[in-house]
Amino acid sequence: MQFHHHGYVSGDPRIQPAAGVGIDRPTDLPDEVDVLIVGTGPAGIVTAAQLSQFPGVTTRIVERRGGRLAIGQADGIQARSVETFQAFGFAERIIAEAYRITEMAFWKPDPANPATIVRSARTLDDPGGISEFPHLIVNQARVLDYFGEFMANSPTRMTPDYGLEFRSLAVGEGDYPVTVTLAHTAGPDEGQERLVRAKYVVGADGARSKVRASIGCTMAGDQANHAWGVMDVLASTDFPDIRLKCAIQSHDGGSILLIPREGGHLFRMYVDLGEVGPDDKGAVRSTSIEQIIAKANAIVHPYTLDVRNVAWHSVYEVGHRLTDRFDDVLPAELGTRTPRVFITGDACHTHSAKAGQGMNVSMQDGFNIGWKLGHVLEGRSPESLLSTYSAERQVVAKNLIDFDKVWSTLMAKKPEEFENPSELEDFYVRTAEFPAGFMTEYSPSLIVAEAAHQNLATGFPVGKRFKSAPVQRVCDTNPLQLGHQATADGRWRIYVFADAAPAGAQSPVADFAEWIANSPDSPLAATPSGADRDAWFDVKVIYQQDHTGVDIGAVPAAFKPEVGPFKLTYLEKVYGTDPKADIFDLRGIDRGGAVVVVRPDQYVANVLPLTATAELAEFFAPLLQSGTRAPEFQNSAK
Ligand code: FAD
Questions:
Q1: Which of 322, 554, 564, 603 is the S-S candidate for 5 at Cβ 3.0 to 4.6 Å?
Q2: Would the pTM of this model clear 0.90, i.e. be above it?
Q3: Best substitution site from 161, 202, 272, 359 to test ligand 1's pocket, by max atoms within 8 Å of Cβ?
Q4: Structural domains in the chain, sorted by start
């Protein structure tokens, strides 16, 4: 974390100096905003948290509830989400309070006595070491709290506007073309409507989204819902795996997904209530907690559950559904205009809770749209960037729904219906990368290049998220994870993997450094005058030598920018390899060097040779326009 470069900071350095719209942020929702986000669930809060890093952009997030979410809803946090939390600065703290899944147990009817269950298998949760980040369980409310804290500490000092409900919107002309009708849900103005005009609207208002309806999108998919009785409980039990994630199947087809919860005692059970047809008319929702507990006891027989306290329970009813588009551009309008209204999260995709994906995928929707809006509104990028959101995320949601259909069908099978007895656990292990969140691979587009030079860095597939590896920071000799040095600050990252020559020698990396620092074709040339040289692009170099073999004084200036009002030389962008875990070997990086371009949401956008400066310039040319905002609104506090 970089601080003190504007002068001494004696308080918590996570509280960034207020800037731009954060300096006099109005308490009440203004009549005109750049971005209006509807809903403070995982999708909306991540969009807001990302935009909170853009002090030149007025973003407000409205929520119909009167305050924070207290309890309930989702709790499964995949490793990709923890990686995202790292970028937002709270991974360590949430890991400390969460439950960590390391193994999963499978329970089935005892062949000798099918009325009772026995443990049939245990599998490692991450057998292939997909990520250095853990798979966690922690309540959705805590995740939202951490993002809320990040927003409040950001330069924009953003906080949600609670007690305001979205009713409708209309897209017209002008600087603020989207007119939104909201209504107060509490307080002296309860029921009163008010209008807000916005440049862009993000609908993150959940499965029954009104924003979705207002742009004419419909959800297509299952006719029927699947229902689970969900309970977060404290209980006394003799079931031995109560602190392990378990899939439990009983002889009559009843099944439970058991999720141990944070804090050592609480656990969640999803008790399968089966398919619910359209003629059910909500009757399943009247299933009582007593009925859910009785069914759970029948499934875990011969073990018993004596429930002492019910923290939360619900009948969670959901089907596999997806919208055909995630923005307001109709198919016939594609290519003729750019979007003004976006939908994210459950507003555009719903699926079962069994793969634990709802909150996770929704957060990645928010991470995807957040930086794009920031770049367009700050004047860095053209509006065409916004069309990539629907194109990228619709495919991800479709893949998720296809995966979840297979997984939830397998979990609903009766034991005698399996072709082989280990089919369920084999599928779980074989497909582990998908639920961990790492299978997303964006296709070539404005922001993802064709993988023409993939052979130069085989471990950084173009379109997939940048997978971290160990390095040594030269200036202070610290062993670090390279990927963890990237924060959610909205910047592009250019990782320059050096050729074998030492720092200071005439070499391809030295030529590249000269070009990126000084050429008018370099993407850095678009950085607004007056802003720090690394305000838009974070350029880091990784030498093939370990830290003792890199002479920091000889490293080109391109990798040691001068920052802040005192023009201090920033030395923390220069790395050497860790001889015990060489990043060049781990990630298949060519010893002749390579350039890896990474998007602000951590996806690899391009891999290039050190000599391909023209190709790098060509990649960024359609994405960059000189900043139109004053330099003080740029991210110069980084
Ligand atoms: P949400 O988290 O639903 O957030 C939408 C937000 O928008 C809410 O805060 C809502 O109050 C607000 N909102 C809605 N309409 C308006 C409006 N008109 N104006 C202003 N604000 C509005 N997933 C699981 O994996 N396991 C579970 O057990 C589980 N249980 C759930 C129980 C419930 C009651 C719900 C609603 C969801 C549950 N989910 C569960 C789903 C999971 O929480 C979602 O997949 C995830 O939260 C999606 O995030 P989101 O931000 O898209 O939507």
A1: 564
A2: yes
A3: 359
A4: 20-77+79-92+138-220+321-412+419-430 (3.50.50.60), 100-134+224-317 (3.30.9.10), 454-633 (3.40.30.20)
